[in-house]
Amino acid sequence: MPLSPGQLEEIEAQRNQTAPTRRVVAPGMEAHLYTAHPVLDHGFVRVIDYMGDDAAICQAARVSYGKGTKSVQNDEGLIRYLMRHWHSTPFEMCEIKLHVKLPVFVARQWIRHRTANVNEYSARYSILDREFYIPAPENLAAQSEVNNQGRGAALEGEEAARVLEYLKADSARAYDHYEEMIGQDGQQGLARELARMNLPANIYTQWYWKVDLHNLFHFLRLRADAHAQYEIRVYADALCKVVADWVPFAYRAFEDYRLGAVTLSAQMLACLRRMLAGEAVTQENSGLTAREWREFQAVLAD
């Protein structure tokens, strides 16, 4: 269960509170505020706070104090221009603060995005919950034969059952020993900051993560991509839905020019021009490496 009854009561109390304000609010984001969106088996993402909206992006780009005579159509066109030409600063005027519950191994991927403010649950001070990420059978996959950091076909039958049993048993045993080590019933008990090193990487942690929209889009471009690891991609997918409601103009531009777009190298672009001119281009005469050629073919196939 991602949230305890006490946490659900706390969220409901937060959502029932209102406060008068002169600052801009985004109706789409107000609907998400404090709500926990489940991810994986025990995880979630929820919005704690935010600043700005589509209009704030345009205001920063125009360096004005209001909408002036600009229409909604002008705003969307401006945002698309900014996204298309990589003018990132106006997007930094919007910020979001999230509460995220996620497995430790996913957190280690996530934290590589260093352009955010993070405060994580302290296992030196507090005791971690007995909650582990155990993949659904369809997400147990073999090592890819062509990608050293990717997955191949799903494991089946006895092999899948054996792997799931290992994951469950090892997680339970590690946590049992963790509890025994920190226990003070008839013993001093090992310090929590030391006992935590025995816990597996699939145990859940939590953090507050605050980031501006420009850097959030960079995160989503990488982590919502079809090639991203499934366990972090589902978090990115959940965030995409939130951002689409928060800044709809900016998100549509992001989908068109980043998430749903591709980048071609100069050599790939030259190959494409040759193909359009009717020339038969092969890997051997393309000037591309075998891997670049495969990636180029994948782009054309899409």
Beta strand %:
5-15%
Shape: flat
Question: Count the strands?
Answer: 7
Radius of gyration, in angstroms, nearest whole number? 24 Å
Low-confidence stretches: none
* H/E element sequence: HHEEHHEHEEEHHEHHHHHH
Q: What is the name of the CATH class of the largest domain?
A: Alpha Beta
Secondary structure tally, helices: 13
Question: Please, what is the average pLDDT?
Answer: 91
Structural class: alpha+beta
CATH topology of the largest domain: Gyrase A, domain 2
Q: How is the main sheet built?
A: 5 strands, antiparallel
Tally of domains? 3
Distance between the termini: 38 Å
Name given to the CATH architecture of the largest domain: 2-Layer Sandwich
Helix-residue proportion: 40-55%
Strand order of the largest sheet: 1-2-3-7-4
Key attributes of the depicted protein:
Thymidylate_synthase_ThyX_sf, 302 residues, flat, FAD, single chain, two-stranded antiparallel sheet, transferase, 14% strand, 3 domains, flavoprotein, alpha+beta, nucleotide biosynthesis, Gyrase A, domain 2
Verbal overview:
The chain has 302 residues and is an alpha+beta fold. The chain has 3 domains: 5-132 and 203-259, Gyrase A, domain 2 (2-Layer Sandwich), CATH 3.30.1360.170; 134-201; 266-301, no CATH class. 48% of the residues lie in helices and 14% in strands. It contains 13 helices and 7 strands. It has helices spanning 5-16, 27-32, 54-62, 72-84, 104-110, 157-182, 192-195, 213-223, 230-246, 248-259, 266-276, 283-286, 290-301, and strands at 36-39, 43-51, 95-103, 117-120, 141-143, 151-154, 204-212. The strands form 2 sheets. The chain has a 5-stranded antiparallel sheet. The longest helix has 26 residues, at 157-182. It starts with a helix and ends with a helix. One of its GO terms (molecular function) is thymidylate synthase (FAD) activity.
